[in-house]
Amino acid sequence: MLRQSLALLSIFTVACYGQTKVPVYVYYESLCPDSAKFVNEQLYPVAKAFKANLELHLVPFGKSSYETQGSDVIFKCHHGENECYGNKVHACAIQHIQGNSFQPNISREDLTLEYVNCLMARAQLKDGQFPTKICADEVKIEQWQTIQECANSTEGSTLLKQHGDATYKLQKPLASVPTIAFKQTYDGELQKLSLNSFRQALCKNLSPQPIQCLDSPGSASAISSSIGAIVSVVAVLAALMF
């Protein structure tokens, strides 16, 4: 009964105040086991469930570094040269993936998340080639050749450097990988919470909380704190109607 009441309250709150969308920046590495674990087990399922509430920014660079030599950019990556290539694949995918005409209900952002989730899972298999095409076929990405050409060109280096600059803007170097920053601001407590329960961390940053947050610890008190405001809205609506 309490859950049903809270669900109705949550729906009414969203109806009155509208959906909130919080920007989340995920700083990660293409061959990092901890990054793969977070993307596959936390980020991917939560991002799909909270699509209307999450503005996701993927930043594939991690603890890498770079230096410029003339027009060239030389990268040194946390897990070796193969990771530098993998990071470029991710950067190029984020840049070039477009929605498919035969999947009109799947957005560019949806496809990018599906592709990155596949890349992170398959790259951990360490079976030789980076799974650029395998994942493109699996997720039905039309632009895999563009992504591959980008990763093998100066464009890939330019895009990865941009992700490096974005990473340095947050921390140089990152304290840990992956790093999750809400509203592009690092918070140690939210970082720990995100790694343990990204769902709970996201819900903590949403106000009003959507119905998907009802299973998260502390959700009842968070929603209940809005009751006073909701009652006021109801009173105003009632006055206007009668």
TrEMBL record:
The entry's keywords: Glycoprotein, Signal
Signal peptide (UniProt feature, chain positions): 1-18
InterPro entries: Interferon-induced_GILT
PROSITE patterns in the cross-refs: PROKAR_LIPOPROTEIN
MF GO annotations: oxidoreductase activity, acting on a sulfur group of donors, disulfide as acceptor
Family assignment from sequence similarity: Belongs to the GILT family.
Protein name listed in UniProt: Gamma-interferon inducible lysosomal thiol reductase
